[in-house]
Amino acid sequence: MGEFEWKGLRYPGIHPPLVPRAAWDRVQDILSGRARPRRRRRRQELLFSGIVYCGRCATDGRRFQLVGEVQKERYVYYHCEGCRRRGRAEYVRQEVLVRAFLEALAGEGPSASAVAAATNVLTGRERDRGEDDDPDDALRYEIRNLRSRLDLAYDDRLTGRIDSTYFDQRSAGWLTRIRALETDLAGRESSSSVTQRVPGGKPPIFELVEVHRLMKESTDLVVLRAAIRELCSNSIWGEKKLNVSWS
Questions:
Q1: Running DSSP on this structure, what letter comes out for residue 36?
Q2: pLDDT digits (tens, 9 = 90+) for 48-91
Q3: Residue in 156, 139, 148 with CA at minimum distance from that of residue 226
Q4: Which among 27, 97, 100, 122 could disulfide-bond with 242, CB atoms 3.0 to 4.6 Å apart, if both were Cys?
Q5: Angle at Cα 30 formed by Cα 29 and Cα 34, nearest 5°?
Q6: For residue 238, is pLDDT > 80?
Q7: pLDDT value of position 130
Q8: Spatial CA neighbour of 200 closest among 131, 125, 114, 90
Q9: How far, in Å, CA of 96 to CA of 129, rounded?
Q10: Segment (H or E) for 234
Q11: In terms of Cα–Cα distance, which of 39, 43, 40 is closest to 222?
């Protein structure tokens, strides 16, 4: 631009300018804009992220979770990152997965203990636990939280938000803690001669209808995710069907 700076002040130089001032100013505006810190978008809680696996990859011996994304700021779609990389990605709306899950719930359904646990989550009774409640519930609660964090981190790794090295470091610690808690919980349950828990058989139909109603009426995605995790251990979406392994 034909100028030079000295001790914070700008002076005209003796060399001819290479670019006009207007072009210089435009370039500085662009560079300043690039230098501004980019705000990270707030992560939106998605209902089935880390919960449903891809059926097409399962038949090939692969294990990929469906990844959710928001389109047009209101529609939630899920797809398999493994299928996308191989050029055969299929997208499914969140409403379709919700409807399929509720239909499966009304069919064979989970065990009575899982229905009771999901009902406690949906009604808020789990959050109201006092000091006199079963201490084993605290262990289960921590295990669910750690598994949820592990699933979210796995989702971040697939979508490129975090690299594999960081994921491996964090997940190793979480998995170690989960195994320790599960071992502790198994020891407590085996040493207890009298159990006061709901039996593991099929629940009465009215309890199943009630948890079905609570899930349809709930609008809290965090609560719904926790309830789904109580009800099922694994879900696979393939051939436009949801196959659920109930707890």
A1: S
A2: 877 888 988 888 888 888 888 888 778 889 988 888 888 887 89
A3: 148
A4: 100
A5: 115
A6: yes
A7: 47
A8: 114
A9: 34
A10: strand 232-238
A11: 43
Distance CA 148, CA 49 (A): 10
How far is residue 115's CA from residue 208's CA, in Å, rounded to a whole number?
Answer: 7
Q: Per residue in 158-182, pLDDT tens?
A: 777 788 888 888 888 888 888 888 8
**How would you class 46 by CB atoms within 10 Å of its CB: exposed for 0-12, middle for 13-18, buried for 19 or more?**
buried
pLDDT band at 198 (very low <50, low <70, confident <90, very high): very low
Is pTM, for the whole model, over 0.85?
no
* Coil, helix or strand at residue 75: strand
Q: Widest CA span of the chain, in angstroms?
A: 95
**DSSP for residue 128:** G
Euclidean distance between CA atoms 97 and 82, whole angstroms: 19
Residues 130-151: tens digit of each pLDDT: 444 556 777 777 887 788 787 7
Whether 203 contacts 115, CB under 8 Å: yes
Q: Assign residue 134 a region (left: φ > 0; alpha: ψ between -120 and 50; beta: otherwise).
A: beta
Strand partners, 53: 65, 236
Single out the residue of 168, 143, 154, 166 nearest to residue 53, CA to CA.
154
Spatial contact of 245 and 232, defined as CB atoms under 8 Å apart:
yes
Kindly give, in sequence order, each residue whose CB lies less than 8 Å from that of residue 42, ignoring residues fewer than 6 positions away.
Answer: none
